[in-house]
Amino acid sequence: MLHSLTSNDEMFQSVHFGPGLNILVAERTDISTDTDSRNGSGKSSVIELIHFLFGAQGGNKALWANESLGRHAFTLELDWPGLREVLTVTRAAGRPNRISIYPDVTKRAPQSLFEQTAEISPKEWQWLIERDLYGSSAENAETSGRTLMSFTVRRVGSGGFLEPTRTFAQQSPHDAMVNLCHLFGLDVGLAARYRLLSNQESTRKKLVEAAKDPVWGKIVGRSAELRGEIGAVEQRLTELERQIADFQVVPEYENIRREADRIDQQIRALRASEAIERRNLQDLERAMEDVAEPDDRYMEAAYKQLNMILGREVRRRFDEVRAFHQTVVRNREKQLSEEVARLRELLSERGRRRQELGERQAVLLRTLNSGGALDALTSLQYALAREQAHLESLRHRFQAAQALEASRRDIDAQRLELEQEMIVDLEDRDAVTREANALFNRYARRLYGDGKNPYLAFSPTKQRMRIEPKIEDDGSRGIHNMVIFCFDLTASVIAHRSGRGPDFLIHDSHLYDGVDERQVARALQLAAEVSEAEGMQYIVTMNFDDLQKAISVGFVADPYIIEPHLTDQPYGGLFGFRF
Predict the structure, then answer these.
(1) Is the bond into 81 cis (omega within 30 degrees of 0)?
(2) What are 153's strand-pairing partners?
(3) Helix, strand, or coil here: 3?
(4) pLDDT per residue as tens digits for the range 293-316
(5) 241: nearest Cα among 365, 389, 385
(6) Helices (H), ranges, 461-516
(7) Distance (Å, rounded) from C-alpha 487 to C-alpha 434?
(8) Can you give the pTM of this predicted structure?
(9) At CA 96, angle to CA 24 and CA 46, rounded to 5?
(10) What does R_g of the chain's alpha carbons equal in angstroms?
């Protein structure tokens, strides 16, 4: 149980707690103006300071980070499992990374005649909270001391009253459920496996999206494409390995290569010349076929048709012309024959030259193919090493791509298996769920009568374990808040009975916003009875006028109101000043 909340600042109004129900009241004074607000009285600040002393890390926006509290050190006195005396926890707003506890309950120092104060980090303090207040058996437990404490002391500023099964708005449902399973006595390991699978699925989806990106896709890729690329690289590697195995370093490699290039150019030139000369030869051969002596027999026939007789002189002139043309034709035939013979001889010579050059080129190429220069071998070896590294990278990517593509099926299979395991585990823990359900049902019926049928649903699904408190309601905020009240009270009682939770539960006044005065009165009376019967402590901060409404319907509040009585005046608040 908590005993007191104090500060080293004399203006701070120390808060003292007792067993059972504790109501910390903030009053609106008679001299308050319309601009005064009870939000400045410090009710919610009590909740924040308790969290601060239980190791909360709030950043620059936290209450204790305000420069006005820079010199304040706050102290919480509380019972601690295994101690006969109270444990004193002190933490300074200006030095939040060190927490002082007396006596030293870390069990890391050897026992001495005198108790010692231990200075520890918030992380070490969180582990002590998990170990001693919540009964976690291992330092690397799946539960979190901070999350468990957030179910014991909900904070309105973090969204603690939005849902019964969450303590802040962005909280992962899997993280919340792991810690709730601890409080209710369910298998934390199975709930943690849901969280692990959820994280794997989230990572898988991100990788799948990344694989679609043209840039990031190169990091993993798709297995079908990578399989083809691996085959191509393996083929190049085989060829390179064969070339290196057969490689011989040839002396005068560059001279031989240059001679081979020169011969290749000569062969190309000879082939070009041959092509031209063959076309010329074809033209000459066609020209020889067209050469023929002139035929003048048509003249005599023509004269006969005209009934004319060729004279002797005319015939003589035709004979002279015929003789001239015959001389010209014979001369042309001779010239063409000589040119054709020359071209044929030239083509034959070029063919022999090209053959000689080809044989020399073949010798040179065989020499080059049998080896090469030393720098060529080095280049081949470098190319081989580069391709081997590329192949290794592709194989890693291929394995990753296969794992990614198979991960969804694997995750789905594991989820089905986990769902079945959780169903079996809940059947084995039927007594635990029955006890929790009975408590929740009894508490809710105390608030709303027997006309409703409230219950807790423990539902293992493929996606996650669910614990859902149900009360038939009209969707109003008041009933929603009372669901949280009954849920927290049930979880606290179940956890405390089995040593998995502390003996206190704390609620901020915001839990009672919008709640009918009858339910407020019944909730406070129920909290008083349960905390007394279970040997626990229920602390609640309330506005006096809200408490007055509960008093008006029969709730007797005086035995439970604790000091101090906070007001909305500058010196009446928790800190004794406004900031």
Answers:
(1) no
(2) 506
(3) strand
(4) 555 566 666 666 666 665 666 667
(5) 385
(6) 477-497
(7) 14
(8) 0.68
(9) 5
(10) 51
